[in-house]
Amino acid sequence: MYNLGTVLWFEIMRTLKRKSFWITAVAFPIGIGLIFAIIYFSNISTKNAAENTINQKFSFMITDDSGLINKELIKQHKATESDNKQAAIKDVSDGKIDAYFYYPDDLVNNKVEIYAAEAGIFDNGRYEGVAKTILQQSVESVTDTQTTAVLKDSIGFNSILYKNGLQFDGYKEIIAPGIFLVLFYILIVTFGNQMLSSTTEEKENRVIEIILTTIKARTLIMGKIISLIILAFFQVAIILIPTIIAYVLFHNALSLPNFDLSNIPLDPTRIAIAAIIFILSFLMITGLLVAIGSAVPTAKEANGFFGVVMIMMFGPLYAVSLFVSAPTSNIVKFLTLFPLTAPIPMLLRNAIGNLTTFETITGITILAISAIVILTIAIRLFQYGALEYTNRISLKKVFQKH
Amino acid sequence: MNAKQTKITSTTPEPIININHFKMNFGNKTVIKDLSFDVYKGEVFGFLGSNGSGKTTTIRALLGIYKPTSGILNIGNKPFSIPSDIKLGYLPEERGFYRKETVIDVMTYFGQLKGLQKAEAKDRAETYLRRVKLIDMASVKIDKLSGGQQQKIQLGITIIDDPELLILDEPTKGFDPVNRRLLMDIIQEHNKAGATIMFITHQMEEVEQLCDRIILLKDGVARAYGTVKDVKREFNNLSLDDIFIKVYGDENEEIERNNNV
Question: What is the number of domains present in chain B?
């Protein structure tokens, strides 16, 4: 395409020179970093606060009708036993002691009762913490370690599944094709608005006429789309690289799970399908945004339409559970095959493995036709509609006039 | 007899632009009824008409921006297409820029789009900026320039690759006399170097100064067409200002009457 390289370079460089690009590009990783930092410090301080709370000394009485409480533990906590519940509650309300714990005889149907002096929102939790610790330690002292582990739900399970005679891990299978879903989401969220403004900007700058006598509208649009894809991958790299570095360096400190990336299954068919859906979806939505940008006079007006497109595109995310639990339902089939809602359901269902061969072929065909038709209309709208600097232009008008 | 008249009579006219029975409708509205004219290689051609008479529409159709309802519109014996065999410089009526980019970046970009290497495009842009005394503004963003300065940049973009055919839609609109003279000089230099120039203007002294031939467009047809001398003769040797008033005066009165109603 004549001059495509020049357009590409100009579009990339002028975007990279914008402060807004870097603010958007850096804001995400900085935001993620801040969230990690907040989680980390919050975990530490909560853990310290909880330990401090339990270790805080306060005077308390216990009445044990359950028969489970270990008398030695009562002594260790320097607590006293009471056989008069009402008197103990009165001692608490009179301020003679800090707390009173009543363990009923039927712990299954009744609650442990705690009466205590108010000590502030956070410190009030120490009473329940101590009452619970005494009960747990008392039970552990009379049971073996395995029973204790079962009771504490700390038993590990290791499932090995087989599919077609080979070991199969359903969750890991999702990762490789699922990357395209994440990528699509990030690209549209971060670059959707830029796609829209890149054409409204041409219109608002009134540069169209000189452009259209210098290069073909198709070259300009393709240059813009390709430059946006390159910039989007650059943006993804800006997000992913610090995230990976942060994970490698701090995953232990942040209590994040260990991922062994070396044994992620790579299903070439599903990955190829995901790539095709991703590319077609990206082209379709880009064409749609270019068409909107060309048809309306200002970026402000275009944003209204942009909102509608985003709702249609990401609305299916609210039906995620349906895609997993009822893939054969009519609503799922509709969302999968209707062009404007198709990208997310198709990418998601391909990742989890319930997109049928028929749906795959039909869906890809629909996406391909939609992308071609929308891009063709977008280029035509750009070519003819962009000269309507102050008016909104209709498809009918464009195709009637020319 | 001045130089431009000599040029016409001493060479065989070869049209670089040929418009034949051009008709243009927008919906039910006919903007151009039946328009035919030629612009010869090497001449300066004035395309005249009142506001809304269809001059810009004709140029847009000639350049393929609009598709004509019917008729032939050729540049160099064929409809204009990109890339073109003939180097074209077009200064549109709607002045447009990438306003957030620097002067030198925008000029270099358009130079590249017109087929120049980046270094050459930048050199030519700087040479032009020196000529129009804007070299100090090379690294300034375009939206920081005044309207007149932006127009100079626009003309610079139009002529950066020394086009063979210049189509200028009111090139001096909004200029003070000093800058108007500077721009007219630049346009004349390009004509002397062999460029054909077709331009729209409402400044009749520019037409007198520059044009070899003119066309007056009214109600979608050519009201007068020929050398400046021939057109004047057709109107009993009135000045071009008076001819313009005579041809379009009633039209303006009608517009005013409609506005009052």
Answer: 1
* C-beta of residue B33 within 8 angstroms of C-beta of residue B21: no
Strands A113-116 and A99-103: antiparallel
Cβ neighbours of A297 in B, within 8 Å: none
Angstrom distance (rounded) from CA A66 to CA A131: 13
Q: Provide the domain count of chain A.
A: 2
3 state SS of A397 = helix
Interface contact flag, A400 B65, Cβ < 8 Å: no
Residue in B3, B11, B65, B17 with CA at minimum distance from that of residue B198: B17
Q: In a 10 Å sphere around its CB, with 0-12 CB exposed, 13-18 middle and 19+ buried, how is residue B235 labelled?
A: middle
B115 part of a folded domain: no
Q: Is residue B97 part of a domain?
A: no
What is the DSSP secondary structure assignment for residue A315, as one 8-state letter?
Answer: G
B260 membership: H or E segment, kind and range = helix B240-260
- Tell me: do A179 and A134 sit in the same domain: no
The beta-carbon neighbor of B92 closest among A7, A210, A215 is A210
Peptide bond preceding B83 in cis form (omega within 30 of 0): yes
Q: Is A80 helix (H, G, I), strand (E, B) or coil?
A: strand
Nearest neighbour of B82 by CB, restricted to A10, A216, A389 = A216
Contact in structure between B190 and B162 (CB atoms under 8 Å)? yes
Q: What is the CA radius of gyration of chain B?
A: 19
Q: How far apart are the C-alpha atoms of B43 and B4, rounded to whole Å?
A: 8
Identify each DSSP E strand in A117-218 by its residue range.
161-163, 166-168
B233 CA: distance to closest CA in chain A (Å)? 37
| Residue of B172, B249, B142 lying closest to A206 (CA atoms) | B142
Residues of A in contact with B90 (CB under 8 A): 209-210, 213
Which among A276, A282, A291 has a CA at the least distance from the CA of A221?
A291
Cβ distance A210 to B65 less than 8 Å, yes or no, reads no
For residue A201, the chain B residue with the least C-alpha distance is B98
pLDDT in tens, B40-66: 999 999 999 888 889 989 999 999 888
Q: How far apart are the C-alpha atoms of A263 and A324, rounded to whole Å?
A: 24
- Residue-wise pLDDT tens digits, A180-199: 888 888 778 777 777 777 77
In angstroms, the separation between the Cα of residue B195 and the nearest Cα of chain A is: 18
| Predicted local distance difference test score (pLDDT) of residue A260 | 67
- Whole-prediction pTM: 0.73
Cβ contacts of residue B12 below 8 Å, gap of 6+? none
Q: Which residues pair with B167 in a beta bridge?
A: B90, B198
The reply to whether residue A209 touches residue B98, judged by beta carbons under 8 angstroms, is: no
Q: What is the CATH number of the domain that holds A128?
A: 3.40.190
